[in-house]
Amino acid sequence: MDKASIPQFISLKEAGKISGYNPDYLGQLIRKGKLRAVRIARNWFVPKQEIKKIISSMPDSNQQNILLTTSLKLLVAILFLLIAIGFIFISPQFSTRRDNLPQNNQSFSTGENLEF
After folding, report:
1. pLDDT-derived band of residue 116, with 50, 70 and 90 as boundaries?
2. How far apart are alpha carbons 53 and 107 in whole angstroms?
3. Cβ distance 30 to 67 under 8 Å?
4. Which helix (H) or strand (E) holds 25?
5. In what order do the strands lie in the sheet with 9-11?
6. DSSP run (H or E) holding 46
7. How far apart are CA 46 and CA 39, in angstroms?
8. Closest of 2, 1, 25, 4 to residue 13, by C-alpha
9. Within 13 A of 48's CA, how many CA atoms are on the CB side?
10. Which helix (H) or strand (E) holds 31?
């Protein structure tokens, strides 16, 4: 038996990431008999060819939406990371500069000693 003729199986979670469908929906398609799969213990595994068929049967707009959604999620994650890094390096709370700190009895506001 040729290795290429043996189907490669992936989990429903991975199939959902590839296809853009929720794994619960893919499970529903399996139970209705619209999607071939193998159940091992409590988990379903789908041949990669089946997922490729689902993607190829999608309208082009759905395929573009999946790509756009994935790209948008990546872009938001990168922007969030950059903003977080920016706050850490720009925020004066995290600054290690000591030249702005008052010396001995100096006050922050006027620089004069306060007596009570």
Report:
1. low
2. 73
3. no
4. helix 23-32
5. 9-11, 43-47, 38-40
6. strand 43-47
7. 9
8. 25
9. 7
10. helix 23-32
C-alpha distances out from residue 90 to 76, 77, 81, Å = 21, 20, 14
User: What is the largest distance, in Å, between two alpha-carbon atoms of the chain?
Assistant: 93
Is the pLDDT at 45 greater than 70? The verdict is: yes
| Tokens 């920016």 -> residue | 86
Give the residue carrying structure tokens 């049967």: 57
Who has greater pLDDT, 97 or 89? 89
Cβ 16 vs Cβ 27: under 8 Å:
no
- What pLDDT is stored for residue 56 in this prediction? 76
Residue 52 pLDDT > 60, yes or no? yes
Q: How confident is the prediction for the chain on average, in pLDDT? A: 76
- Which whole number is the average pLDDT over 18-35? 89
Angle (CA) 49-6-44 rounded to 5° is 60
| Angle separating helix axes 12-19 and 48-57, nearest 10 degrees | 30
Query: Three-state DSSP class for 102?
Result: coil
